[in-house]
Design goal:
The complex is a heterodimer of chains A (81) and B (234). Chain A has one domain. Chain A contains 2 helices and 6 strands; from the N terminus they run E-H-E-E-E-E-E-H. In chain A, strand 2 and strand 3 form a beta hairpin. The mean pLDDT of chain A is 95. Chain B has 234 residues and is α+β, with helices and mostly antiparallel strands. Chain B has 3 domains: 41 residues, no CATH class; 104 residues, no CATH class; 85 residues, Alba-like domain (Translation Initiation Factor IF3), CATH 3.30.110. Helix content of chain B is 59%, strand content 13%. Chain B has a 4-stranded mixed beta sheet with strand order 2-3-5-4, sandwiched between helices. In chain B, helix 3 packs across helix 5 and helix 5 crosses helix 6. The longest helix of chain B is centred in the middle third of the chain and has 27 residues. The mean pLDDT of chain B is 88. Classes of the chains: A alpha+beta (81), B alpha+beta (234). The interface between A and B is large, with 40 and 46 residues. Strand 5 of chain A pairs antiparallel with strand 1 of chain B, so a sheet runs across the interface.
């Protein structure tokens, strides 16, 4: 089970560098994938770089909001984190 | 001043500290820990901690006991519980943002399921069924019907509701669907209007339904259960 880490204090540039390593990009505000805004798979909305949840494995990036996080637990189970 | 501490070590303590100098090498270290599935990242832990806490509570267990699995309903119920907690923080912006997201993804039905959880209607609804002597399975069946058809089984009264129109809608739904139980619920400033609407509905239904109610003045909630009177077949 991965350790959940808050990246609130991580500078924006470091966040962007990190998601680039994961195969994503950013326009400075949103997470991009292949040049387009990457959409949260649960709510179909763009994900802000300052409000993301990144889960390892097949690398899931979703928006950090209650609807998406609840959907995440339904899909991955209570022991995912 | 920038600190030179190890970002992975910092991260494994639950949060990346401020002031770390993020060299390419350090980003690579964090990335490696992520690739090895040792780390997951989140902007702030508040939402996830709140949801994890709720998922350990008896109310969630109770919900799962009496609700046949349906991913959408489970997600919406969970989100409704979060809305209830946020009510206490009075963070209106956050609450409105979640409601918008629910509506965009799940439409009005989604709002109603979340509202059902937010206002604590579920436990009272299940108790109301169990008190009739229903078995667990019968209760699960009723709950499945409720969530599958919530707009026809529950009326949500808000301060925006127009009483006359609402009474007409409720009567029409009851006449068409003849539910075992119909719920009229209000929150906050709509408690009085809810009572009046219930009175008018009961008057029109005459002897077909009887009413039980739950009230919490502290929480500003009023919930009426209109239970259909069993037909005498003797």
């Amino acid at each position: 089970m991965p350790e959940l880490v808050s990246i609130k204090e991580m500078p924006r540039d470091a966040k962007i560098a990190l998601i680039k390593k994961l195969g994503y990009d950013s326009d400075g505000k949103f997470v991009l994938k292949k040049g387009k805004k990457h959409l949260d798979k649960y709510i179909n909305e763009p994900i802000r770089i300052n409000n993301m949840f990144i889960y390892p494995g097949s690398t899931l990036i979703i928006d950090n909001n209650p609807l998406s996080i609840s959907a995440f637990f339904e899909e991955y189970g209570d022991n995912a984190i | 001043m920038q600190s030179d501490c190890d970002p992975v070590e910092s991260a494994t303590k639950g949060a990346v500290k401020a002031g770390i100098e993020w060299s390419e090498e350090k980003i690579l270290q964090v990335y490696q820990a992520f690739k090895n599935k040792k780390l997951a990242f989140i902007e702030d832990r508040e939402t996830i901690d709140r949801i994890q806490k709720q998922r350990r509570k008896g109310e969630w267990e109770h919900f799962k006991t009496y609700t046949p699995y349906d991913e959408e309903i489970y997600i919406l119920f969970q989100t409704g519980l979060t809305l209830r907690e946020l009510e206490e923080t009075e963070d209106r912006k956050k609450i409105d943002d979640i409601i918008k997201k629910i509506h965009k993804r799940y439409k009005t039905k989604g709002i109603h399921i979340a509202w059902f959880a937010q206002n604590g209607l579920f436990s009272k609804y299940v108790t109301n069924i169990l008190e009739t002597g229903a078995t667990t399975q019968q209760t699960r069946d009723e709950v499945k019907i409720l969530f599958g058809n919530i707009d026809n089984k529950v009326a949500f009264i808000s301060y925006k509701s127009k009483p006359k129109q609402k009474v007409g809608e409720i009567i029409a739904k009851i006449r068409v669907n003849s539910p075992e139980t119909f719920i009229i619920s209000s929150v906050g400033g709509a408690m009085k209007a809810c009572g009046k609407i219930k009175d008018e509905v009961m008057q029109q239904l005459s002897s077909q339904y009887f009413c039980e109610y739950y009230e919490s003045e502290q929480k500003g909630k009023k919930i009426y259960f209109l239970n259909r009177i069993a037909e005498d077949i003797t």
